[in-house]
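Please predict the structure of the following assembly.
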Amino acid sequence: MIERGKNFLQGEVLAGLLLAGLGIYILFQALGLEYTSDFGPGPGFLPFWLGVIIISLSSLIILVALRKPVTRAIVRGAETIQPIRSLLSWFTLMLGIALLPWLGFYISFAMLTAFLVLAMERRSVTVAIAIGVGTALGFYLILSLALGVPLPSGPWGL
Amino acid sequence: MSRYLQAHGVFKKNVVAFNNLLFGFSIALAPVNLFWCFVGTFLGTVVGVLPGIGPAGTVAILLPLTFHMQPTTALIMLLGIYYGAKYGGSTTSILLNIPGESSSVVTCLDGYQMARKGRAGPALGISAIASFIAGTFGVVGLMVAAPPLAEFALRFAPPEYFALMFLGMSMVAYLTGESVLKSLLSASIGVWLGIIGTDLFSAQSRFTFGRPELLDGLDFIVVSIGLFSIAEVLINLESNVKPDLFPVPKGIKNLLPNMQDLKDCRFAFVNGSLVGFFVGMLPGAGATIASFISYGIEKAFSRHPEKFGTGVIEGVAAPEGANNSDAGGALVPLLTLGIPGSNVGAILLAALFLWGLRPGPLLIQEHPEIFWGVVASMYVGNLMLLILNLPLVPLFAQFLRVPYYLLYPVIFGISIVGVYSVNQSLFDVSLMGVFGIIGYFMRKLDFPVAPLVLGMVLGTPLERALRQSLLMSQGSLTIFVKRPISAVLLLFSIVVLLIPILQAFRSAKSLQREANLA
Amino acid sequence: MNCLIFVALVILAAVVPVAEAFEPTKPVEIIVHSAPGGGSDLFARAIVEMLQKDNLYHQPMHVINKSGGSGAVAMSYIAGKKGETHTIGLFTSAVIFASLTQKEAQHTIQDLTPVVHLVLEPSVAAVKADTPYKTMKDFVEAAKKNPGQLKQAGGVVTSVDNMFRLLIQKATGAQWTYINLPSGAERIANLLGGHMDLMLENPDKVTEYVRAGKMRIIAALTEKRLSALPDVPTIKEQGISIPILTQSRGVIAPPGIPSDAVAYWENLFGRLVKTQTWKKYVEDNQQETYFLKSRELADFLEGQTKLLRGVLKEAGVKAVR
């Protein structure tokens, strides 16, 4: 059971605000496009209304979220939800992607995997490196040798 | 209906058709063609399983290999790749929530949930069975009534497309989860994502943020892999307790669909076959749109629509069928008129050009071996795929035994490779990452993802069809009701939109009646 | 004494660099701006096939797809490979059109080295066979009588068929509506279905329908009559005088490559267009070989760009460069 409480509702409010912001951006951009053209809607017509709809709906969501009573549920056992794990994994992934043009796919992927195993699963460094290299090797065998799939390459043509 | 068919000599033609079909089988069962059919279907399955590059790209890349083959043989192989990919595409969708290609995105919705409940086997199995039934339907339709169907397809002009897309969009009413607000917001954002790119009518760019990579819009498979595959991993990583993610089914009887499953899917088989076939016939509307529409129709006519999205087997059978019968549908206008019904059709058209053939209205008369050889090979190919895929189901299901901490980096890897293979663009890969975190937050905050992808797929065609229709009618909206086909489709959409309102009204009334009695 | 001269000569020979003509020594990339299966992609693959078949070329050549923005992504990619002699690319006129209207395009064809012009793809005007228009003149007359009623199945607003429409409208005073349909398949379907009245297309896409009696070609939008369609009058012969916009296909290369590399490619393609296989390919696809070398290509591109800018201005479409 997840603990839904104030954090969750704050999340909804935040999302609502962000989306309302997006709606405003869309509306603003839409005003720079033509609203009508010969015989019908122009390129700005749909974005304009999308902006309006998104702003209205997100505002409603913020209102609904603010008026909802805070609910609390039981936390079972030792399971805790740690969004930080997800965020950290995501940052690692993006870093791995950023490294692709310099280090190529296999090296970046091995590093990404090793780091994830190390940080998320708390295994030892040797195990982490072994898994990183192992999976990268597996990919190499299947993707490059067997299938010849083009991938970003880095030093040593990897 | 019968008179219509008679006028086109369909009944008389069926006798002739049977002879031609035998002729076709004599071609399809020739050893060289059987061999290349097998190669094609096998390769197609592999390509379909790997997310990212779809059958269209694979077919194009393999075209040079076919220069040295007989045109009929080459066509058989290339088609084998196409529907092999459709069979394979559902595998990663169901097991890992990674859409194998655009038309498998809808399969992720219920297919993956079934896998989470330990029913990966039946999901994979029903996907193969539905694909086989729909594929066979497609071939039969192609064989029996290709010319009159092609004529019917020609009656679709922009107003009819608008009505069809409108029907698809009205499915949003059926894709809503608990919060109508969030579903509509999700769908609106989806439509916005879909219009990013260059406006067809004015050549003005919309929301491209100054990047040339966005001039042609966001790639649907890139967004989907981010929203489904990456987000799924991120959500699963939140908990520090190893979740019992994939209970592996015990016993052989849980590895394939049982009789109850097959019974539940009766409507889905018909739905998928028909929708995929008809949408496949229309140039510009393909398997992806067909899969969404058939899923929506399935949900609309189900006795338990609220269960869709939690792992309902019909929710897998319908779209999987649709994305297979679309192959047969796409061949209808291609082989009778030389007009490709979908993007693979366009490549096949180019291939036929390269072999010196000019597909057009005279192709069937002048080169019957192509038409009948292809038709017969589709029967053979579908059967081959069924035989190939069903025994593989238990094998694939075992894949779930891999401990999650090893699995998820591999999922990241497959996703990166898959997205990169589409356009060799690192920009696409970064976009995938961005949509991954967006998908994560959407899941956290209970924003349903299905309306977003629906909006993305149908938004632009809807807007485009509206503007094209208004150009045709010089601004008059009556064009939609003056034309019979579009009027009928629009009426149907309004009915579909009203059903949930009527149901809510009826249940409110019955609640009130109970309250009065109490 | 002779010994000394001999030694001097040997030293000179070793020290003075011999001007080596360029030859590719590693695999070559040929960049196309369409997705696999698109027009440029198929053209590139056909070229690779022909070069290897006729033994003109021995290094592997890989077709790389960089689709996006009608060439914007591909042009940027090639521009980024400054000085790279083992990368070439294919261009089409669409790239020039698009770069004039897209400010997102960071590089245009002007930033690259022109190599050769290969073929021209002509356009013809086609109508459904059961309409009363036998010539373009008939169509124009009908359009004059019902301004805006007739419909042309066309592509993007900046594509060549719209440019032709604007030029013809200006020259004749007629007016008809342009419906944007993104794919050729949809355009043909709409024409055959009777929903639209006119289509401007490459002849190889419509000849099958003409042969089956479903379509009729009413004009060739070229300077001279097409050899494959000797009975179809050109637009000029019908009294409508407009500048002819071409649809070109050719080869370009990254900026800053040495002139002997350009010469090598010019030479290679020059030999290619003289082969029988090439001639057959061009004939099958109803294209026309129009070979120009680097310097002439540069002038040609400049001329077309100027012409296009003028037409766009007439169309009321904003040109950003």
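The first helix of chain C runs from residue 2 to 15. Chain C touches chain B through 57 residues (CB under 8 Å).
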